[in-house]
Specification:
Layout (H helix, E strand, L loop, with lengths): L1 H19 L4 H4 L2 H18 L2 H16 L5 H21 L5 H5 L5 H4 L2 H5 L1 H16 L4 H19 L1 H29 L6 H55 L4 H10 L9 H9 L1
């Protein structure tokens, strides 16, 4: 929602200010300039990106509009499923959860929390590390190192869309200059025309520079920054899971391990101690 509001504010401010200065809107409507800049930017992106990167970036664009971050209720569900797993392991032994982590979509521990089942990356992260715990006698230090390696790889991949789109944003002002130079070349071919014709042609050429800068700093650059924030928010979920697992393997009781995990949740979505306690009772 805020992305759409931001787009409206940018366009309204720029175009509104131009109109208030008695500018002619028809001069800004230069579809050929947009074709040159947009087409060149797309081509440059395809040249610089392997097919895997193109696929990742294409899928991530929709998240700019749809992503809403992890809510307090969703964090409570994550903590709830971890508490259920730890309690079962403490009471029935490590092997008791083998069936749950082999088929989490059929496990009573996971099916009670539908939102976490939708987060396939988080479910896989939980189950993969629990398999390590029950199959090898790992220490908390070793488990933390294993998870840190995975999180580093995951974060690197999650940042690919932001980095790729940011490079496109960096190139847009230069591509705007390319469009402007082409406009000047066309203007020079009309050197024998009256001044009003030359003025219109030069104005149209300068629109290329304007569009390149506006697209870079008003739209494409902010989209890249938004994707960075999304990647950072996704990492919080994995950090919560990591802290809980490391604490439990280190010898903490289920409730204490979950409490350690609660402490790393950002303040805007962090459930209170009483809220977590009530959720665990339920």
């Amino acid at each position: 929602m805020f992305v759409l509001i931001g787009i409206v504010v940018v366009l309204g401010s720029v175009i509104g200010g131009y109109v208030l200065e008695h500018g002619n809107l028809s001069l800004l409507f230069q579809p050929v300039e947009l074709l040159i800049i947009g087409g060149a930017a797309t081509g440059a992106f395809l040249i610089s990106s392997p097919s895997k990167v193109v696929g990742i970036v294409t899928k991530s664009i929709s998240r700019v509009i749809s992503a809403k971050g992890t809510s307090k209720d969703e964090f409570l569900e994550i903590l709830g499923v971890l508490n259920g797993i730890f309690t079962k392991m403490r009471k029935e032994g490590l092997i008791a959860i083998e069936a749950d982590i082999e088929k989490p979509d059929e496990s009573p521990l996971f099916t009670k929390y539908p939102s976490i089942l939708k987060n396939h990356h988080a479910v896989n992260f939980i189950c993969d590390n629990l398999k390590v715990i029950i199959s090898a006698n790992v220490t908390a230090f070793e488990l933390e190192n294993i998870m840190d390696l995975e999180l580093e790889s995951h974060h690197h991949e999650a940042m690919i869309p932001a980095h790729s789109i940011n490079k496109v944003a960096d190139g847009l002002p230069a591509l705007g200059i390319v469009a402007a130079v082409l406009g000047v070349v066309l203007t020079m071919a009309k050197i024998s025309e009256p001044p009003e014709v030359l003025g219109h042609s030069i104005g149209a050429a300068l629109v290329g520079t304007f569009l390149g800068v506006l697209l870079s700093y008003g739209f494409v650059g902010p989209i890249a920054t938004h994707l960075e924030h999304i990647a950072g928010e996704d990492m919080v979920t994995f950090q919560v899971i990591k802290i809980a697992l490391v604490s439990f393997v280190g010898g903490a009781a289920p409730q204490i391990a979950v409490e350690y995990a609660r402490r790393v949740i950002p303040s805007g979505a962090k459930p209170g101690f009483s809220e977590l306690e009530d959720a665990m009772r339920k």
